[in-house]
Amino acid sequence: MFSQLFILSLRGDILTFRDFRNTLPKETAHVFFRRVKVPEKGEPKELPIFHSDGVQYLHLQSSGMYFVLTSCDNVSPNLGLEILNRLIAIICDYCGVVTEEAIRKNLLMIYELIDEVIDFGYPQETTTEALTAFVTNSPVLTDQTNRSILSELVNNKTVSSRSANQSVAAQKKEDIYVDLFEHLNIIFDGQGHIVRAQVEGEIKIRSFLKGNPKIRLSMNEDLLIGKETAEGQINYGKAVLDYCVFHDCVQFAEWDIDRTLIFHPPDGSFTLMRYSLSDHFTPPFRLYPCVEEPGPGQLDVIIKLVTDFPDSSFANKICIIVPLPKATVSASCELDRTSNIEEMYEFDSVKKRILWKMKRLDGGIDTSKIIIRLNLDDVPGNHKREIGPISVNFEIPMYISSAIFIRALKIVEQKESNPSRWVRSITKSGSYVSRVDVSNVKKSTVW
Questions:
Q1: What are the distances in angstroms from CA 34 to CA 30, 31, 43?
Q2: With contact defined as beta carbons under 8 Å apart, do 21 and 3 qualify?
Q3: Is residue 199 within 8 Å of residue 281, measured between CB atoms?
Q4: Each residue's pLDDT tens digit, 414-426
Q5: 167 contacts 93 by C-beta, under 8 angstroms
Q6: How do residues 387-421 score in pLDDT, each as one tens digit?
Q7: What beta strand segments (E) does 209-249 contain?
Q8: Hey, where are the domains in the chain?
Q9: pTM assigned to the model
Q10: Which CATH class for the 2-131 domain?
């Protein structure tokens, strides 16, 4: 099974190191860091699993750190990565955040957690609630300053997202945080038409309620699971899920009545529900790329980005990545300066790509355009086919692409402390890609 577990910073500093079996040398951490920074020829740089001198390395990069498991055996990669994911979640539950500072200040507790999660290389207990009885050290919280400054500026119904950075072992207030996340996986063709579209969603909960009280979470009543419809039933306009998976704590006594989930939340973070759907939703962005050839060794890539989500919402952290031909010598961009959008571009000469970034885009039907002018090296090849596919990264807070929403969240067992209930929804890009059609490249007259 597993031989070692260690956590490294991006600089290669060893933050924690636990040797379970004493079967491998202590230099494995340095071997791992050198291999990650300088991979072997033909090997991808960001490879989560690799072998070196008979040692299997499994790692995840999270919060600016490497979480690594080593083994002398050929263990299941899924098992190793899942153990690391669980360990990161447990550290977050106990420390409030997963940062290098938090780990350095809580070394004793981190080692205690590692010893409870893995014993002599074998996974043992990976739930925060079960570990509470065995962990004796108290956490030193690091992210306490200015935690609820947004609530003072706006109103008492809104708080900063940092408010959820609490520890299950040292929480002062009883709160429950419910996050509805959706990741969009969409492929467009060169004309902006959808080739494939899917929504991967989940409801995540961070509970800091004492005594695990009974919770009722109600969703929209027109929610359906499965595409099979009864005779004469019309599903248009309803939220139809392809599949749905629930946590073990969920009870379904009222699910068939009004789509209400009843559960007793365990301590810390957990995923209450995962779902997927592929019908009846509108993509928030559409891309319309085209390629023109003004002359020999020159190419123009014109990209029009069209927004299509309500004007009451806005998108941020927008980054459009445009892969360019390997023969690209230089690239310049012309942005649409008629709009008030704060945007910029960057040419990565090493990876041969353009990064088009925008801080914020308001909702409503709006367009943005960029013209990328390329100078190519005089080498043979069909360089036009090396353009794309174009990928889009974004985040839209308080917006859901599907028709799913949380109708009510109620704590059935009322307490004197009156716990706070916080609900938010976020739509993020998953694999949001647009192909580039170069079958009919135009000859532009002005360059």
A1: 6, 5, 14
A2: yes
A3: yes
A4: 666 678 888 999 9
A5: yes
A6: 989 999 999 998 998 888 999 999 887 666 678 88
A7: 215-219, 224-225, 240-241, 243-246
A8: 2-131, 169-176+195-281+402-422
A9: 0.81
A10: alpha beta
Residue 427, token pair as written in the block: 């739509």
Q: What region, left, alpha or beta, does residue 94 occupy, with left being phi > 0 and alpha being psi -120 to 50 degrees?
A: alpha
Q: Is residue 432 within a helix (H) or strand (E), and if so which, with residue range?
A: strand 420-434
**Cα(344)–Cα(342) distance, rounded to whole angstroms?**
7
Q: How many CB atoms lie within 10 A of CB 321?
A: 18
Which tokens sit at 414?
A: 């009322």
Token reading at 399? 């917006």
Reported as half-sphere exposure (CB side, CA atoms, 13 A), residue 322 has a value of 32
Copy the structure tokens of residue 19. 């040797």
407: amino acid identity, one letter = R
CB under 8 Å to 83, separation ≥6 — which residues?
2, 69, 117, 118, 123, 126
- Distance CA(29)–CA(68), nearest Å, equals 9
CATH architecture of 169-176+195-281+402-422: Sandwich (2.60)
